[in-house]
Structure formats: structure tokens, C-alpha cells
Amino acid sequence: MARTIVTSALLYANGPLHFGHIAGAYLPADVYVRTLRMCGDEVLAVSGSDDHGVAITISAEKAGEDYPSYVARWNGNMRATFDALDIRYDIVSGTSTCPEHPELSREFFSKLMANGYLVERQTNQLFCVHDDMFLADRYVEGTCYKCGSEGARGDECPSCGTWIDPLQFEDPRCKICGSTPEERTTTHWYLDLPKLRDDKIGGWIRDHEWKTNVEKFIENLLEDVPERAITRDMSWGVSLPPEVGEAGEGKVLYVWFDAPIGYISFTKELMRERGTPDAWKDWWQGEDTQLVHFIGKDNIPFHCLVFPSMLHGVQDGYVLPSAVPANEFYNLKGGKFSTSGGNAFDVVKFVEEWGVDATRFYLCSTMPETADSEFSLEQLIQTTNTALAGTIGNLATRVLKFIAKNFDAVVPELQESHREEMDRLILEECGPIEDPAAHVREFRFRRAAEAVVANATVANVFVDRMAPWALRKEDPAKAASALNTLCEWLNWQARWMAPFMPTKAQQLWEMLGHSGQVSDESWPGIPDAGSWRGLTAGAALGNPEALFPRLTAPASEA
Ligand SMILES: [Zn+2]
Ligand SMILES: [Zn+2]
After folding, report:
1. Residue 108: CB atoms within 10 Å
2. Given this model, what pLDDT does residue 226 score?
3. Distance 170 CA to ligand 1 centre (A)
4. Nearest Cα to 493, choosing from 515, 509, 480?
5. pLDDT at residue 332, rounded to an integer
6. Are 5 and 344 in contact (CB under 8 A)?
């Protein structure tokens, strides 16, 4: 059986989860997992928060909160957002709370060191005498030596994007107290990415088949791979393993080093909770495991180069990613969804107002798969009213309500003599039928969402051709056969919808008289004349109700 680990980028616990993240890395993962599970694949879905790093400690200090409660707040916000959007993982944890995380991260460090992939170096770093600490990354500010902009941070210039070496600042300032820091010598460990590239990862990256937009991104990645420092002088984070001795005191692993290890430590946490503490190995070190990372494009270097290098470097038989379906950026009305810029809105409230499945479907149908794309409320309303209410909802409601009124609310009977004509008409002549799962497996979620609607259009064409409402008067037996055929179609429609719109799919499933969960059904694929019918004539149907009430734009948006 195919075994797949699906991970979504760990949320940086420094702000809310916004639609940019959701459309980029979380909703596609959820749709993928739901689809694979219905197809019978064994899937493990892992996500959580990335809790360390200087951006977090600075923000927490500014908010007057201690670090653990600060990250717990954003982790809680993330969970609430997942709940609101019906996005499910087997585990959602956090790198500062997962009990297995520090030890496994140190184990990675130790094994990389033992295997010759870490380099220890003395470097000069800025030290604030007033605060008695080395100033890691954003704890230093100064004027950008590339573009002259004043608010450059010790890791990056927000104006021009240059990766900053803080020692090159002419006017460095301590972010905490504003005083001028001095240079002092400190020891750090570097991941030898050039060596790992030459050993294996370079060849692996070149031979690997990547999604087209990822391919573009990694073409230049290998040219100029630097060693990357994986330690920092600060207290919030995973401390170094004891064998590095005194030089490791007051230092922690750099956040980008320990964060991706979270995918594995969270799996260990889950398997311990399930009472099978060694089962994580079957996944992460199993030969036939597919590892799929859902991320935004800004995470491509880490997931296509750095993390695979780490996984290979520890020499423990870890699987390397089989696919990294990175998405482009999803923007809000021209600007970026931002956690710090005040441009984000409350996702949970939004979903309460506009509906979880309408939101999921709209995000799927506009996902930034190959290019940046944009979110707009007017478009969401339009998509819901045309594709969902007009095409799928209208089909289900008019068929089932008509049956409730005229056929005793049971599955009407199919006359054997009509079978061939009905099958030919709906399966061959009313339009192309697509398998949404085939698109999902290729990470084409927009096409997949379109296919769900296109399949409903097939049935609407069938309704137009057969005109069962009129036919009932002249040929009631044939009208019954047509309505039976439409019930069968809705029975497929509910299963096709399930990964994308789980609540509405379940509602439709119950309207068809089923009592179980539609998500527990097998994936239907594409109907075949010999075997596609599964309903029993005379079986009671459920209560027909409007699946997708029409949405109206708020006055201020019009
Ligand atoms: Zn700059
Ligand atoms: Zn200071």
C-alpha cells in the first residue's frame, strides 16, 4: 500500500495564519490528504508551529509576554483557524512544546558533526555591553550598506532584500537598548552545505522531477551554496548537545535548523501517544514512503536543499522528499496578506460569515499554483453563486425536491429497458467527465475544483435533455428512470465533493438517504457503464434542503 507523509510548513508563531498561508500550504495539504485517504492510501498528516528565533523573542518582549505564552497564543490561533476551515492533521504540535523535539534536534546536530558535515568556526559578532549579550539577527539594526535604507535588520534589509552581515553596518545599534554594540569573538557551527551538495544532494536535486515553478526556483540554488550557521547566541531555543562542551554554553540551534526537524519530532510525539513509539520509523525511514512538503515559495531553498541535506547527512536512512508542491503567493486585493502589516483579517470570523465550504472551494479554485493570485470577496460571492449554488446546489435541490413531492421521497425506479439509453446519455453524451483525484495527485487543485463543478454540469445537461419534470406527465416510468439516474449521479457528486467541501458533501450524502460518513467511502473515480449504479430503487431519501444558499455582497463592498 502506498504510504505518504504529508507536511504543511510550520507556521512561524509570530502572528495569525492568514489566507496567504492557507491557500499556499494548508488547504492544498488537507484536500490532498482527504483525497488520498478515500483512494485507500495510508497517509500521515503533520503540521504545527515553529516557535523559536529572534523575531519571536523581540515581538514577545514588545508585547510584554513571556516567550512560551506568546507562542502558545499563536499556536492556539492556528488550531482555531484549522478547526474553522475543517483542515485536519494527525498532529498539530509546536517546536517549543513537543517533548521529543529538543532531543531529536540535538541528535541531528550530533550525527551531522560525527559524520563530518558540521564546521566549527570562531567568528566576530556584535555584543551589547549594556544588555550583556550577543546580538543575534534582528537584535541589531543599522543603515543598509546596499541601498542606504535606515531600518535594515541584522539578518535582512526589508527595503532591498539583501542578506545583511551586521558587521558591515557603519552605525549598528542594539535593538533593545539603542546603544552601539562592540565586536567580540564567539564560536558557531556551520552546516557544510557545499560538502553535502557534492556528496549526494546536488545530484539528487538535479535528477529529481520538480513542479515547474519549483524547478525555476532551484535552477540557481546549487551554483553558490554557502555554509550556513546553525547556532545562535541566545537562550530561547534548543540548547546544544553536551559534547560541544563550554563553547556551546549560552547558545541554541538556529531556528531554521530545528524547525523542519519538527516534522519528525511531531511524528514521534504522535506515535508515542498512540502507544506505538517506534512506528515513526516505518514512516520516516521506510523505503516506500512518499514524503510530500506543502509550502509557500519562500520556503523552497529549505525544503529542496537544506532539509534534504540534513536528512541525508545524519545517515540514518531518512527518506528524502518525493514532491515539494510549493505555491506562489496569494495576495489580498493587490497587497500581500500580512501578519505584521495590519492587512490581514480575522479568518475565523470570515469563515463564520461566508461559510466554510464556500471559502474552501473559492481558495481551491484560485490557488496560486503556478503564479501569484489574488483573493477578492466579490469573486468568492460570484463563484459561490454560480458554481456552487447555481450548478451543484441547484441540481441537487431540484432533483431531490421533485422526487420528494412526486415520488414519495424514495429512489425512483429504473426501468431495465431505459438503462442503456440513460447510461449512454449521461456517461457519454452530456459532456466530459473528469476524475478530480487525478488532478489532485498532480497538485492541480484548481483543475480538480473545476472538475467537481464540471461533473455537475454533465448532470444539468442531462436534466435539460430529459426534462423529467415535463416527462412525468407523458411517460412517468421514463421520468422515474431519469430521476433514478440523477440520484445515482448525485451519489457520485457527493463523493467527488468530499475532499474539497466536506460539510456540504456530507449534507448531500444524507439527503441521499445515507447514514455513514461520505469521507469513509472509497474514492469513486470515473463512472463506468457496467458498474456505476449503486442505489436501490425504493430506498428512502433524506430531507432535501438548499445546499448552497446564495450569498449577497455587503453594502460596503458593492
Ligand atoms: Zn537595503
Ligand atoms: Zn543593548
Report:
1. 26
2. 87
3. 13
4. 509
5. 80
6. no
Domain 117-193+217-252 has CATH 2.170.220.10: yes
Q: How far is the CA of 175 from the centre of ligand 2 (A)?
A: 7
C-alpha cell at 121: 568556526
Q: Which ligand is nearest to the CA of 160?
A: 1
- Residue 160's pLDDT is what? 86
- The residue ranges of every structural domain in the chain are 3-106+255-348, 117-193+217-252, 376-520
Instruction: Write out the DSSP string of 258-318.
Output: HHHHHHHHHHHHHHHHTT-TTHHHHHHT-TTEEEEEE-BGGGHHIIIIIHHHHHHHTTS-P
Closest ligand to Cα 174: 2
Q: How far apart are CA 158 and CA 522, in angstroms?
A: 49
Domain 3-106+255-348: CATH architecture, name and number where available: 3-Layer(aba) Sandwich (3.40)
Ligand nearest to the CA of 128: 2
How many Å apart are CA 334 and CA 439, to the nearest integer? 28
Phi, psi of 129 (to 5 degrees): -70, -40
- Cα 365 to Cα 163, 220, 380, 446, 455: the distances in Å are 35, 31, 10, 4, 15
Is the sign of the CA dihedral 151, 153, 154, 155 positive or negative? negative
Answer yes or no: same fold for 117-193+217-252 and 376-520. Answer: no
Q: Mind listing the pLDDT tens digit for each residue in 50-91?
A: 999 999 999 999 999 999 999 999 999 999 999 999 999 999
44: phi then psi, degrees, rounded to nearest 5 = -120, 125
User: How far does residue 168's CA lie from ligand 1's centre (Å)?
Assistant: 12
CA–centroid distance, 153 to ligand 1, in Å, is 9
Return all residues near 162 (Cβ < 8 A) that are at least 6 apart. 144, 146, 147, 152, 156
Asked if 55 contacts 98 with a C-beta cutoff of 8 angstroms, the reply is no
How many Å lie between the centroid of ligand 2 and the Cα of residue 177? Answer: 4
**The three grid cell numbers given for residue 177, joined into one nine-digit string:** 537598548
**Per-residue DSSP letters for 456-511?**
HHHHHHHHHHH-HHHHHHH-HHHHHHHHHHHHHHHHHHHHHHTTT-HHHHHHHHHH
Q: What is the pLDDT of residues 497-524, one digit of tens each?
A: 999 999 999 999 999 999 999 999 999 9
Identify the H or E element spanning 204: helix 202-207
What's domain 376-520's superfamily in CATH?
Isoleucyl-tRNA Synthetase; Domain 1 (1.10.730.10)
